[in-house]
Structure formats: C-alpha cells, structure tokens
Input
Amino acid sequence: MHWENILATRASRLKASEIRELLKLIGQPGVISFAGGIPDDALFPVTEFQQAFAALCEGENASAALQYATSEGHLPLRQWIVGEMAKLGIPCDSGNIIITSGSQQALDYLGKLLLSPGDTALVQWPTYLGALSAFNAYEPVYDRLETGALRPAESYRQAASGGRVKFAYLSSEFCNPTGESIDSKERVRLLNLARDLDIAIIEDAAYQSLRYDGEVIPPILALDIEREGSIEATRTLYCGSFSKTLSPGLRVGWVCGAKSVISRLVLMKQASDLHSGVVNQMAVADVATRAFDKQIEKIRPVYRQRRDSMLQALSREMPAGINWTRPEGGMFIWLTLPDFMDSVGLLADSLKSEKVAFIPGSAFFADRSGANSLRLSFSNSSEENIEQGIARLGRVIRQALAS
Amino acid sequence: MHWENILATRASRLKASEIRELLKLIGQPGVISFAGGIPDDALFPVTEFQQAFAALCEGENASAALQYATSEGHLPLRQWIVGEMAKLGIPCDSGNIIITSGSQQALDYLGKLLLSPGDTALVQWPTYLGALSAFNAYEPVYDRLETGALRPAESYRQAASGGRVKFAYLSSEFCNPTGESIDSKERVRLLNLARDLDIAIIEDAAYQSLRYDGEVIPPILALDIEREGSIEATRTLYCGSFSKTLSPGLRVGWVCGAKSVISRLVLMKQASDLHSGVVNQMAVADVATRAFDKQIEKIRPVYRQRRDSMLQALSREMPAGINWTRPEGGMFIWLTLPDFMDSVGLLADSLKSEKVAFIPGSAFFADRSGANSLRLSFSNSSEENIEQGIARLGRVIRQALAS
Output
C-alpha cells in the first residue's frame, strides 16, 4: 500500500511538534523542565471534581451524562460562561457560546471555517505553536502581524497574492510563548486594521484568568462590541479555556462570538465529533459554579511567586547580553540570546550537561526564524527547582558564550 | 462584518443535519420516534461507571485524570482494544490504535488525512449521513460504491476526473441506515477493487458488537491482514466505537490500522484537540475491562427483541408494495415505499396526523436520491411503542397510498 499516493496535500504539513516530542524526552530522572506549558496538577481542585463526578452518577444525571447530547454544548455551562463574559464587558447570551474540546479545537474549527488553501493568516512572530499546527491543516500562508507599529492594511493585502487575508490570530494577554500582552491602544489599532482588511480577529484568551499584576484590560471582543453596538456586528472570536484554571485533561473550552459564526461552528462540531463529552461539561459546569473564583484565588499567588522566583533567578544567573520578558501573568518567560546563538543546539547541550529543558524559540515562528530565543515555563516547577534550573541554564549559556 | 467574504470554500457544504434538527422537533408530547439511532439509556452500565468515576478520584488517578495526556490515547484502553481486535482475527499492538472522540472523529480525521478538494470518496447509496457530513468538509466528489455486482475498477478511475479516488467507506455490518451487512465474498471483492484502485478502505464497525443472529463474519481488516501477512501492509482502517455498547456521551472510539497511518492520525489529533478527555478514556477502560462482555450480554437480547417486534409489526401493519430489510444486528430497519412516494412529505403528515417520526431516506444518499425510502430505528423504543408506532405508520402510509 503506497499511502503517499493517496494522502491529501495537507498531510505534508503534519509534523511532530517539538513540545510533544520533548515531553517524552524529559522524563529522565534529574531533569528540571521549563518546557511544557502545563498547570501544576497539585493545584487542581480535586475535591470539587470528586464531588462533581459523584453527583453525576445520581438519578437522572447518569442517563444524561452517558447519552448523546447537543453539539452546542451543555446549557448550564454555557450560561455560566455568559456570566463570566459579562464581567469582562462582553454582554451576550448562550447562543453566542459553543463548547469545544479545549480551545485547541476552537482554533482548529476557526481555521477550518475560514481558510482555503493559499489564504493568509496573520500571526505574531513568535506565536502559539499549537495555533500554527491547527491552521496548517488548512494550508494557509502566514504573514507577520505587527501590533506595535502597524503596517498599513494595503501591505497585508498585497502580500496575500495567493488568496485573501482571512484573520489575525493572537493571544492578547500573557501570550504563549512570550508572556507579553498588547495594551488597549494596540487592541484598538488592531480592530482598525481588521476593519480595513475586512477580516476576523481570533482572540486566544487561554490565560485570561492568570493575571498577577497590572490593570485589567478589556478583551478585544469587549472593545469590538463597544464600537459596533452589539456582539452580532463584531468580527472578534474569543476563545476561552478551562485548561489553565480547572483542568486541561477534561478538554473543555469555548468560543464566544456573533451567532452567525457560532451557528456554523455548531454544524462543524456536529460533523466532526458530534459534541464534547457530556461528563466533562457537566463536571466543569458544577465545579466552575461552586468554586471557580476560589480556585483562581488559590492558583494566582502560587504562579505569581514562581514567576517572581524565575525573574529573580534570571537576574542573578544570566550573563550580560541575555534579555527576557517580564510578564504580568500567564505561564511563560521569553529569553532572547545574542544573535549568533542557536537555542536548538543549546537545548541538546543543556539536556546533556546540565539536565535542564526549555523550548527552542524557532518552534514558535511561522518562518522558523528566532533561533536565538527560547521559552521558559514557570508554572509547573517548585521555587527550589526554578532556582536550581535557572542556575543550570546560566551555566550552559555562559559555557556556550565562552566557546 | 461580511462573513460570507471570508469563509473557506468548504463552508458552503456546512448544512444542518436532518437528524439533529428532527431530534429537536420530536420532543413534543405523544410522539413515538423511530428517528434517532441512539442507544436506550436505561441500558447504560450506570453502576459500573459510578464505580469508575469514584476510582478516578482516588490518589494519583486524580492528577492523571485532570492533567494533559498523550495524543495517542490512554495506554490501558488501547491495550484492552488490542485484546478485542485479536478476538476478531486482527493481531496488532497498541501502536496500531489511536483513541478518537467517538468514531465520528475518526471519520473526520480520515477524510482530513486523505481528501483534497475534488478527490473522490466511494460510498454506498445510501450510507451513514454522519460520514457524508464529516467528509464534506474536505470537498470531495462522491461516487457510488457497488459491493454486490462490482463495477470494474477502471470505471471508478475514469469517473474521478477532478481528482483521484482515495478510499471506499462503508459499514460492513448492520449498517446505518439499512441494517444490512456485506458477506465474506463481497468483502474479498471489495479488497480486490481497493487493490486495483490503490485506495484505502474505511471500515466503520460502530455496530460490530450488536449481532443478534447469523454467523460472525471476519472484519475486512482481518481479511486484509490474512492476505497481506501483517497489519502494516494493509489498506483497511477499522473504526470502532463504544457509543453503541457502553456510552455515547463519553465520546470514545478508535481507529485500528497500519502504524504509518496511525502515527499521522496522532499528529493530526495533537494539532486539532491535543487528546481525548482523560476521564472519559480511563472510565471506559475501567468499565470495558470489568464489564464489557456482561454489558453485551445484557443489551443484545433487549435490542434483538425490539428488532423482532418491529419486524412482526411491519408484517402486520404494512400494506402491499412496501418492502423492508431484515437486519441480523444493529439498530435500523430500512423501508422502501413505492417509487412515486416521497418520505419527506410523509414525515410531515406523519408527525401531524399520527405523531410518529422516522428519518427520510434521501438524507442518506450522497446525491439526495432515495426519496421513496425511510429509516426506522428500533433501539430506543419499548415493544409497546414499537407496536403502536408501526401501526400509526401503517395508517399514514395507507392514507398516502389512497390519496
């Protein structure tokens, strides 16, 4: 059987993600890993989920939890999300929400809905690796979204020679991989650009609840509603997730946006996996309703302290010429090495000589540039490991600089 | 915002499924529905799932259940499936299995892996509506797969002018919607055709465990292995599901096939939703290990009795000129009306005058033909409702014939 003869053209863009492959490598004893951007499972609200699973098995809940359900998602969960969106300045109703299997599926669906081969997706340089993987299946071209000094709309339009610019994707807060946010002015400029190009904005808000300091900035969708008067007239699709707050293993996220888009996503979900697991949605609805705020209060100070420890350790351990971001939230710090250094080679050395892991920066660039950068995650390491690990990394970098 | 301007070309093929829309309609009091092909939730192994969910919350299970996991799927579940596949004459190991979110997602992924726009998918006339919905996203052309008197390979090749024939999709046993199976000879002929065309076979085995009588026939994948000597040399991708046996709401299915395909599906899953819910997979692994055979022993006689009741009621209530299938398993009976009749109109009458529901046959034809056919599901109705409902349907049909 010659599979190569019958694969779709998109299959050539299926590649093993460096994150996932690394996650297998770093299981060796003694490795301190800042690689995976995962929550600390010691912080999961286990008792609340135990109660939720127990309740699911009682009476009529059991039948509902085990039976087929609607593609839109579990109504009480969508209603809870509506309440949270309102707190963020996003008035909407449950018809503006679809539940997805994590926000990763939201990115897959939005790529599927909007991209034909050769169309252009605007993404930041660097951007979330998983967004590139999801969009790749729909064979787009990538162009560099510049949120600071904005390029004129016309230059994006001209660059999209093979198709049409379809959307700008970004994580507006504590973004994966840099940890940086864009401010209100940049958000407004981005909305202007999107209006000029008549494209959508995909706002990845996976880290929304993980702000450790600084002032809350309204989501792009909130600014879009303010400008257009109603969510139905907006172009922003907000992707939320419970993976960084309650549990990633349950795979529950959502999209909030205009009903004309949500209704199409519902049809897409029906065709692609019918609906997200009912147990997962019921358990998340139950735990979110009873304990979401409490859970955020619990995890924020822990992650804040880890961020602070890592920033302090970097100040202490890094030689001159190394720069890094100082994020106000999220899970990541982005390190920039001198131009001539290559973080892929550094990782190999690093794992061998000092047993410390990170993700090479080039993984996050659509054009595979950024060889002199790397991503550190502080969310899943103890302060002791952060101090030790950054000291190790400092030694590896100093050694590389010296050689 | 003009969404029409930025939708992918595939979006024009997103259509509301008649099944799903109907499922909303038939909630009216007094309606007897043979429409949805869903298991009876009174038969779910609720106690076993309660035990499974309780166990999931203990000790280290909780952290694993709530944390990110590998895209391949939960290893103990894949190992259990390996054992079941061996019983079907399919020797393989866990590397030949990927867990999907129901077999619906398996169909979506296989369409995504194999179809570029304009390629040809061979499907039966009629076929599973959900397969057409899943494949539609990848913009194929459909050609009619004839499993009885096979068309020569060349005629399929010539018809696929806009692309290449990529696969033949079928449910070899108790298929949705007709309830019919193809026998060993037809399976071998199909393998010959697939070899001639150098295409894949997608074997949808969602109803595999629901045989009520007749002899077990080896799956197409088993015959393919027998012929090729090893699963790695086969062209058949077997899609299994727990939805008809343990629970559809948990969304757990799998694909079994050559590792060169499974490894690509793993990358696809990683990019599209990272992994299926861990709780779902752990719970299914636990219940399957402890109680799968017992569950099958419990549900088979119930569904067999319902099939028998429906067949008897049809014999009693249907006027001359109406034909139907006599399936050896599954959940469906397929009714063929005289050529001049239209089952969509019949459904409207039927819901109004007699409050009985079914799915019009044309929903299952890639070319929307088959207006004079309809699908009845017996799985989720009591014997009393089956007798009453078929009597009502008999009256509606007799009335239509008389007018």
